[in-house]
Amino acid sequence: MSEQSPLVYSVPTHLREREPFAFGRTLGEVAKLVVVGYLAARLVGSDGLPAALRLPAAVVVVLVGTTWALVHIQRRSLDGWLELAFRYGATPRRRVWRPGRSRLTTDVSPTEMERERGWYQLERVRVRWAPVPTPNHQLELATDPAAERSGGPL
Asked: Are 67 and 60 in contact (CB under 8 A)?
């Protein structure tokens, strides 16, 4: 018999971080840098801007774009912070219960229901204990005359 070494499995330890794509950067960061480089090259080669403004505009685009792509604050990119700010601005500050679309009573007019705004008037609520199930329970319910008069076993 030969000795077998135990199987060793690698366990991922970077589950909160994205997988590096190239040069230790994620795919999103590399894509942002490629777009920034493309825009800077288009600015330098454009004929729409005067020659004195082409190079400074391209440098500004490169600096702002690389900062946007590579800077992380508290393990979150600037895109993530901007998304978080928009999501915070879009959520309501106060949560209010509103009635559903179903109506409990059919004899109430819609204008009265809208006036009450979700409050329902209950009349003659009777609470009873459910009968204890016994083997003879089905036989008792079937022969009980009071259940037949009231319209059902409950």
From this structure: no
